[in-house]
Structures are given as structure tokens and as C-alpha cells.
Amino acid sequence: MPMGRLRRIAALAVLRLAEATQPETCSVSDDSCSVVSESPDTRWEPKTLSVVLPCAGEGEFASKTVKAVSASVPEGILAEIVVVDDGSKPALGKSHLKKEFRSEYGVKLVRHKQARGLIRAKSAGAAAATGDIIVFFDCHVAPRPGWHVEFLKSSAENYRRIVVPVITDLDIDSWTERRRATGHSKCYLTWDMDFKWFESTTADVPVLSGGLLGISRRWWNETGGYDKGMAVWGGENIDQSLRTWLCGGEIVSLDNAFVAHMWRNSQDSRTEAQYETTVIDPLKNRLRAGYGWLGSYIEKLHQYPYLNPRILGVGKQGVDVGELHAVRDRLGCRPFAWFLWRFRDVYEDSGLLPDEVFQLQETKSGLCLTYNGPSGTNSQGRAIAKLMPCDAPSPGMLQFKQHPNATMWHLGNKEHGTGRCCSGLRSWNTDQCLGSLAREGILTTVCGINGKDRSQFWRLSGEDDRLAPGQLQKGDGNCVVALRKKNKDGGESGAGGSFVLRPRKCLERSDEAPVRWRKLRSEEPLETRLYREAKTERPELFS
Q1: Residue 516 CA: distances (Å) to CA of 365, 455, 470
Q2: How far is the C-alpha of 21 from the C-alpha of 19, rounded, in Å?
């Protein structure tokens, strides 16, 4: 055995002896354990890290990642690198991670002959980890020097803290960081139990992106690890984020810890996933996370057709999340409304708890601005909004992905100057905001909730405005009007013809100025009503 490996084992033996004097972990089976209702000192002194790498068909990427991790952490701090070979063919232990390689780099190999999926692979790796902090990385990363220092230092302030690095871009040819300006670390939760990247001025992270994080072994055990009812991949980040924040923990981004990550690229076959995935499993997992932690907000999930338990084939027994509720009850976790209040800079200030949702009717045509895309996350990243009959069914969508509220809008995105709502218009129950005006309508793109995207500056003029009321104004100062579409002869189409949206100079306030746009069907949305009621019923939670 190499001398470096012997020294590492000896160092770990000393650390394990010291660990015996640390406070006892709150057992998962201990019903008397509650972390929210008490305020103990959560500081501690972590000394070692275990890095868990779930690998499915990664081949050479697995060995490169192991080498990069090993080179980035000094001996005595890295307890082991746990590689979970999730059904790779050929097995990693017989191809890229042979016995000599594992001995040299301190690899503990866990092998699944048949693939069990990312979630169960990560859980198996955590079960084999011995370090004070369990670090989950993807099997195609290169941590940058110093990351472990930041993980240990920040985690020491609170054993209930999950830490996440800034994720940058990996050059898979040189296995080095390509550029740092495009780093990501923070996500927020959308109403369909999905997540979106965003930027903020604080270190707090509402929702994990998933694969790259550090968590104390004690907090992992206290919170029960990953939901055993979830399968394959997707949604575990939502569950882990909510059970952390609601149950007395926190998630923090580390600005000086960088991990270069390989992103999937359709133009490079080397980056393709080497395992089978389905659309259904992540949706079922997200549904489980919602039923586990949303409480009364579960009703909100029913506004998304693709999260219907019947459509997902969950069965007559419904969604059994008794295990999640057992964790919730044992740890005395807070209600979901507290999470919304904790991140009110996202949900209140960015318009995700709007005062009203409404239709936008163009008065000349009598038609309503309609989002021509799916509810929830738009996998294409963009769509189009057109004028259509206000009572028309969801346009061009299969039942599974239809948008039942395609004509409903609300104010969204922060005002860049004030940091409060709102500077744009968001399609209700989607991730899309009005963007640039195009020939066929108004383009919609993923909402930039921080308010920095000028193409998403839109507003409807009101009574206390220098402009005439009822004008839909873009960020460039022009307003949008409806013009009857020209026919083949160049004339206007007749009655019942279609309309197009075009920019025109805005009208100043005057008695003669027509109202071009007006709100219809204005109502308080379910999510806002539930939030308002929760703050009234339990005000002590929101202060």
C-alpha cells in the first residue's frame, strides 16, 4: 500500500477517536428529537471530507474526476472518495478504476450491477462515507484549489448548514476550468416544484440545483437523507432544500469555492448521458416533494395538468409521503408559508405572490393576450404571446402539457432601482415573461426576476400616470397597439380577421385618448390568498 495512503488511514484513526467526544447525533428514529423548537449551539469542528461520486457510464470521466478531487484536497482531510458505480458496463472496477488506481487515490468503490438511478446511488455513497462532511459531486467535475477550505470553514459555523460551490464551466479536453464569469450557485422554487437559476446579493440559497453540495454527516442523518420513495433522478434537490430550510437548517453559497462542471452539449456526443431517463420519474418525484412539504399549498399543484397523480399513474392509493411527514413531525418543521416569507425578496419582491392575476384585453380587437406555450417550465426557454379570443382553450397543447390559464398574467420581476416589484409582466403559472416584440407577436423568455433584463420591462399605464390609461408600454418607451392584418392585396382583412401587434408612440394623457388595453377577470390567486391567511393565523412565525 502506498505510504500516502497509510498516512491518510492513520490520520483518520486519530480523527475518529476525537469524533467520539462530539455531541451525539439526533437519531432518525428518535421521536423526541426536535431541532426547530430548540436553539442549541450548532457550531462544531469538522476535520474530514468524504466525496461521493455517483457514476453511471462515465468511463474516463470518472477517473479524471477522481484525480481532480484527490489533487485538490490535502492528505488527512480527504477521508475517501466514494465512487458509486451505478450499473456501468463495463464495470468501472474492471475498466477505469482498477484496484491499483483505487489504492493510489483512496477510492472506496460501491457497485450496483443494475442501475438504480442517481438518487439511490447518492444515498448508497452517503451510507459508505465516513467523513465529517459528505460532499456530493457529479462524476464529471474538477474542483478548483481551496474549495475544501471554504467547505470546512463555513460548515463549522453550523452543522445544519448545507454549503454549495459556485459552479463553473469545465473544458473536458484539458479537464480545467474554462471560464469563471458564468458561474452559478443559487436557484429558487417555482410553483410547479421546479427550480430556476437566479442572482441575489445574499449568500442564502432557497433551492439546491442538485448535484454539488456539502452536508454534515450528522445533519444528513438527522434529516433522513434522500426520500426513499423517489426514483431515478430529479426532485431530490427540492425535497432536500425544503426539509433543510423548514426544519431548522440553512443553505449557503460559497463565493470562493469553485467547481468546474461539464454541462451537457448537444453538439458534443461525449457529454451525452450514458444512462436511460424518463420524463415521468422527475415529475413523480416533484409531486412527492410537494405532497411532503407544501401543506395546504398542495392545491396549487393541481393547477398543473402534468402533476396530476392520475396522469402520472401514481395509483388509487394516492401519493404516500408518510416517511416525509414523519421527518416533518419529528423535527418540528415549520409550514411552507414560512419558506415564502423567509425568501420574500424572491416571492414578494419579484412578483411570485402577486396581488392579482388578470387577462389583458386589447380593446380594438376584443382579443386577449395569450401565452402560446406550456404551463410550468418551458423546456424550449421561450415562446410567443398572441392575440386570441379571451375564452379560447389552451392553444396548441396536448392535455399533458396544456396551460389552462394561458390568458392570465400578473406583474413580475423586481424594479432594478428599488429592488421591489415590479418591472414586467409574467404569464401566470409559467416561467415566462414578456420580452421583445416580434413579427408574430411578443416573444416570451425565462423571467429574470432580478429585473436586469431590459427586454422584459413592460407595464400597463394607470390612472395616476403621465400616459393615457390603458397603454401597454415596452422598456424602450414605445407602446404596443393592435393592427388588423393585411390581406394579399395589401388592404386590411375584413371582420373577424386576425390582428398583429406593432410598436407605436405612446399617447399622452388627455380626455380624447382611447383605452387600448384593459384588465379582465382580475382575481387574487390561490397562492397569495393562502400566504395572506397563514400570516394572519400564525403571525409569530413571520417576524
Answers
A1: 10, 21, 5
A2: 5
Angstrom distance (rounded) from CA 304 to CA 469: 34
pLDDT of residue 510: 85
SS3 284: helix
Closest C-alpha among 278, 296, 298 to residue 288: 298
Which pLDDT value is given to residue 185? 84
Block residue for cell numbers 406593432:
502
What 262-270 contacts at long range (C-beta under 8 Å, 24+ apart), as own/partner pairs, is 262/61, 262/138, 262/140, 262/141, 262/170, 262/172, 263/169, 263/170, 268/172, 270/172
474: Cβ contacts below 8 Å, ≥ 6 apart: 437, 457, 458, 480, 503
Beta bridge partners of residue 369, listed in sequence order: 387
- Helix residue spans in 247-279 (DSSP H): none
CA 489 remoteness from chain centre: 51
CA-CA-CA-CA torsion sign (374, 377, 379, 381): positive
Contacts of 380 (CB under 8 A, 6+ apart): 373
Q: Where are the alpha helices (DSSP H) in 312-368?
A: 322-331, 336-342, 344-347
Would you give the end-to-end CA distance of the chain in angstroms?
Answer: 58
* Cβ-count burial 420-436 (b if 16+ within 10 Å, e if not): ebbbbbbbbbbbbbbbe
The span from the CA of 252 to the CA of 474, in Å, is: 36
Which phi and psi angles does 46 have, rounded to 5°? Answer: -70, 140
Ramachandran quadrant class, 19 (left: phi over 0; alpha: psi -120 to 50; beta: rest): alpha
Q: What is the CA radius of gyration of the chain?
A: 26
User: pLDDT tens across 387-423, in order?
Assistant: 999 997 765 555 556 789 999 999 999 998 899 999 9
C-alpha closest to that of 361 among 408, 405, 430, 429: 408
- Residue 316: what pLDDT? 55
Which tens digit of pLDDT belongs to each residue from 22-48? 444 454 444 445 555 445 689 999 999
> Stretch 288-315: mean pLDDT, rounded?
92
3-state secondary structure of 426: strand
Contact 253, 187 (CB under 8 A): no
Can you give the pTM of this predicted structure?
0.90
Q: Report which secondary-structure segment, H or E, holds 171.
A: strand 161-171
Place 158 in a pLDDT band, splitting at 50, 70 and 90: very high
C-alpha cell at 458: 413592460
The answer to whether 138 touches 249, Cβ cutoff 8 Å, is: no
pLDDT digits (tens, 9 = 90+) for 174-204: 999 987 766 678 999 999 999 999 999 999 9
Of 149, 70, 148, give the one whose Cα is nearest residue 103: 70
